[in-house]
Amino acid sequence: MGLNLGLIVSALGGELHGDPAQEITGIAPLETATVGQLSFLSHPKYQQQLTHSQAACVIVSTQLRAEAMARGPCILTDEPYLYFARLTQLWKKTQHIRHKNQPNIHPSAVVDPEAHVHHSARIGALCVVERGARIGADTELKPRVTVAENCVLGMRCLVHSGVVIGSDGFGFAPHDGAWEKIEQLGAVRIGDDVEIGANTCIDRGALDDTVIEDGVKLDNLIQIGHNVRVGKHTAMAGCAGVAGSATIGAHCTIGGGAVVLGHLTISDGVHISASSVVTRSIAQPGHYTGFFPLDDNARWEKNAASLKQLASLRERIRSLENKLKTLDSP
């Protein structure tokens, strides 16, 4: 079942130029959209694609009013990418209406009798929800999610397949050449509107809880160590890793493959480039990068060898500067 343009604009707003009765059969990128599909243009650099697109209608910025109307039907909005995001939500809600007789807890899921699952939450196939865990209203666990004992998820969270919430933190005390386990006695507390990507692991705290605040978005294959705190509306891309007891502020972004070392504090509004390694606390908002640039291997090896000499070169330069000062003095 499709949606017509009038229904879309009625639900999401925007300024429609076109037939409200036009039926939309799908959503597609500009370059591949067909005559029954709705598309969007969020960046002016793709304006050439707008001209040639076969889409039935295009969502565009009000700044491109003339170009869009010259092409054909369009929806004008101040924030086309945000409009597109909300359109996908509307589309999914319309196309995938839940059957009333579909159980909220899949028959293959294992939910401990002492766990609390809100009646509007959905627990997918082969999930495990252990003793004392709490799952909030309208939260959905996709298949094979594990929520360990006493861990809490707030409302409207979406947790994708393979996620483990509340696994033991990596805590061991050295003794006589071996390792003595430190039992992880805390839990994990996750706020509202959090999304967690497939196969991400969030460790429980050693004593206090690991905390993921409201609105945080975690991509696939992320490791969150014990006693980490992640502030509101921070987003992390795939394969990022945060070591134990690090604190990350609100509205931060952590690029794919980036690493934050343990016990560091990152302030609000910090953006870390992909593959960077954060080795010190960051007190000021801004964009930070820390990695060795890619190069062909032979040149990279020469530069890497030179880096090892930087300390001695610095001392030699200081010595030369001191000598020059002596020569310049009267």
Which topology of the largest domain does CATH recognise?
Answer: UDP N-Acetylglucosamine Acyltransferase, domain 1
- In CATH, the homologous superfamily of the largest domain goes by the name Hexapeptide repeat proteins
Which structural class fits the helix and strand makeup? alpha/beta
Shape summary: flat
Strand ordering within the main sheet: 8-11-14-17-22-25-28-31-34
Largest sheet: 9 strands, parallel
Secondary structure tally: strands: 35
Oligomeric category: single chain
Low-confidence stretches: none
Mean pLDDT: 94
CATH class of the largest domain: Mainly Beta
The portion of residues assigned to helices is 10-25%
Which percent band covers the strand fraction?
25-35%
CATH architecture label of the largest domain: 3 Solenoid
Architecture overview:
- The structure is a single chain.
- It is built from six helices and 35 strands.
- It is of the alpha/beta class and 330 residues long.
- It folds into three domains: 3-95, Udp-n-acetylmuramoylalanyl-d-glutamate--2,6- Diaminopimelate Ligase, Chain: A, domain 1, CATH 3.40.1390; 110-288, UDP N-Acetylglucosamine Acyltransferase, domain 1, CATH 2.160.10.10; 297-328.
- The chain is flat.
